[in-house]
Design brief:
Helices cover 68% and strands 2% of the residues. It is mainly alpha-helical. It has one domain. It has a two-stranded antiparallel ribbon with strand order 1-2. It starts with a strand and ends in a 25-residue tail after the last helix.
């Protein structure tokens, strides 16, 4: 990621893009005399999460570093969530936002695909060690970023009414799916399996598709590189990735017995775990979504994040069941959130700049699709500009 300093202020390309978006949104909101819709079922849990994040800055020993993470993981993504919820009025705009996320996914996926395919062709791929990665520092980060977007694209491919939306979704999946599989991320495989099973179960032919999805998942798991990756962990019981995580979680619970309410603060896990590392490899988060939020933001942060997740799951599921043109979008968001939870059982699906922004972009789409009433459909506008009404249908 491109990083630099403006005087004493550290920044990077993603933050500049977010701040530019916020600035343009602010100018246009004032110019057009619009109001930002702040009242929603997300308002209270989001405010509580921001409060928990602010407390985590006060708790942290290095408040300067903690403040930088608070800005990157909470303030800026939540501000972007407000932009999305306030400005995405039509299905066309929703697809524009998703297309932007998918473009970023392609930028991540293609270099990684090339690197792994080259390693396979040169017989240098060693799955007993960390798989090769092009942009990120770990291959798991590739799957963490791609799988939620794969979930949204797969839902739109299956159910979107507009052929162009299905084609765009298919084009992204043609790149992102192989990249996810060849990331060799076991957590990514778990999240991807959840996506496949949920989408299969959502179909009217679920009684046939669910067994077929299970069979396809098993078939992919038996492909030689993937089978070897999984088998290595099963054969190496001591010191494998799950064994390491179990020890990490146990030591983290010992740490949290000393800080059960407020946690240890942002940018402090490595330092606070000092007496508990023993023979564990040092990491900056405990690789479990519950422990990640509990350690960093305390009980308030954990509960408020769970509240946000519950709201988006409830609204997106209801939106899918209501049907209409927005049903596929709702189902995609619902499945993406389940993928975040599944991958979060064994990894860190939120505490990165790109992951937190992706999460709040999807939550913003959910809010827009449920609560934003668009203007009446104007015959002078393209037919694809379908307003996002509460029931997901066109207004006569």
């Amino acid at each position: 990621m491109l990083r630099w300093h403006v005087a004493f202020y550290p920044t990077q390309l993603l933050e500049v893009a977010v701040l530019a978006t916020l600035a343009v949104f602010g100018v246009e909101t004032v110019r057009q005399g619009q109001r930002i819709g702040l009242r929603s079922p997300y308002t209270i849990p989001v405010l509580l999460l921001l409060v928990a994040g602010a407390l985590s800055v006060l708790v942290a020993p290095d408040r300067r570093s903690a403040l930088g993470l608070y800005r990157a993981y909470f303030l800026e993504p939540v501000a972007f969530f407000l932009v999305v919820g306030s400005s995405v009025w039509t299905l066309r705009r929703a697809m524009l936002l998703l297309s932007g996320l998918w473009t970023a996914g392609v930028v991540v996926a293609v270099p990684n695909l090339i690197l792994v395919v080259q390693a396979i062709g040169q017989h240098t791929l060693n799955l007993a060690t960390t798989p090769p990665v092009a942009i990120y520092q770990t291959a798991n980060a590739v799957a963490l970023f791609l799988v939620p977007m794969v979930a949204a694209a797969a839902s739109l491919l299956l159910y979107a009414q507009d052929r162009r939306d299905r084609l765009i979704s298919a084009a992204f999946l043609a790149i992102a799916l192989p990249a996810t599989i060849l990331s060799f991320s076991r957590g990514g495989y778990l999240a991807l399996a959840v996506v496949v099973l949920v989408l299969a179960a959502s179909h009217r032919q679920a009684r046939w598709l669910v067994p077929a999805a299970i069979a396809a998942t098993v078939a992919v798991a038996l492909l030689p590189p993937i089978r070897n990756r999984i088998a290595y962990e099963l054969h190496s019981v001591q010191g494998n990735t799950l064994d390491w995580r179990l020890h990490l979680w146990a030591q983290t619970l010992k740490l949290m017995s000393q800080h059960p309410v407020l946690g240890i603060g942002l940018s402090n896990y490595d330092r606070a775990m000092g007496p508990y590392w023993l023979d564990l490899s040092r990491v900056i988060y405990p690789h479990n979504i519950v422990l990640n939020f509990w350690t960093v933001t305390g009980l308030l942060g954990l509960l408020s994040f769970g509240w946000v997740m519950a709201v988006v799951l409830r609204h997106s599921w209801r939106g899918w069941r209501a049907g209409g043109s927005l049903g596929p979008l709702h189902l995609g968001i619902f499945t993406a959130m389940l993928a975040v939870i599944a991958h979060g059982l064994v990894d860190v699906p939120y505490f990165k700049n790109d992951l937190s922004l992706e999460f709040w972009a999807l939550v913003g789409l959910s809010w827009a699709a449920v609560h934003r009433g668009g203007r009446p459909l104007d015959s002078t506008r393209p037919a694809r500009e379908i307003p996002l009404y509460r029931d997901g249908t066109r207004r006569a």
